[in-house]
Amino acid sequence: MANGSDIHPDLLVEIVKLLTELDDFFAFSLVCRSWRLAAVQQSFRFNNYTKIPWLMYAPPAKATCRNHRRVFLDLSTGKTRPIMLPDHIDGKSRCFSSKGWLITIAQDTTMRLFHPFACAEIKLPHVKTIKNWKNYEIDTMYAHFVKRCVLSSCPLSASDYTLMIIYGERRQLAYTKGGEKSWNTVRTLYDGFFDVIYYKHNFYAINSLGEIMILRGDNPSVAEKVAVVLPTMPYKLIERNGDNLYMVESVESLLVVRRKGVCNRGTYRASKFQVFQVDLSNKTWTEVKSLGDRALFLGRNSSISVLCSSGGFNNCIYFTDDCSQNQVILLKEGEDIGIYNMGDGRIKPYFEGHWYNRLNPSMWIELTFYIYN
Hints:
This is F-box protein. This protein has seven helices and 25 strands. About 4% of the residues have low confidence. The protein is an alpha+beta fold.
């Protein structure tokens, strides 16, 4: 029998043209590199699918070490797709997502990047290479040591990628670049960071004071304050109300999203979202009342803005549970999942009846098509 990789490229392209379902397209692209090359040439036909991220459901409560299958939901069609993950991504490993990749932290505190659709894996520097790591109870608190993970670019398409994390009880910043063997800490006047974004060739981070810092690409080890987004929101107010802050790029603009009521007086679910557009040059912010034909996807993923001209997804914020403090104190299991309508301010619980998991609640995964060797 002939090897599939020996099929002529032109014939492979003709076969791809016959595929109409995204599931079939993904299966085709994962066979080998020559099939993937043919698939990428026709990926434009699935642009409407790839704009909206998939939801990776939390692992089932009774998942075993021999069963690492995770279910992915395609919001565009309502269909689900089971995908097998490596052994190290079990129900006890901590997961985040960025640029279509999973960032995992195992119980032994080893870290990896894994692409669930391309089946590519990259080992990351060990958590214990972070400066002064002995000051943290990493071995016993590995599940909550890292708070956020954001990639600058896809490691399959650029070897000079940077991964920025928020870590520790003080919510500090650290980063590593492709090929490096250790983490580099970032010097800041204040800690308490909520989110990080790679925006216009630089990392930006927002802290609990509402201050936005820039970490320039040529020297991300030093943070420089560029804007005070919410000067009327002191730290104590944020702490009491349990707010969370997100940063997301939308139509080349920088947005800050405030998630209210996450841990407010024992309540578990979010109560309201506010969106602000930030002008970094003039250091001003403007509240946004409508997202128009766009939708935001927030959670334990790098925040995503998507054009949704049809299908009823627009002008909404799709959110999953990412409040680790809430999960520890209230012992809830990632249940704060829903859709916030910017038009009427209502929250619709969504994805109910599926598995919840305290360590790994459901999260959004961007669909990405890459050519690699």
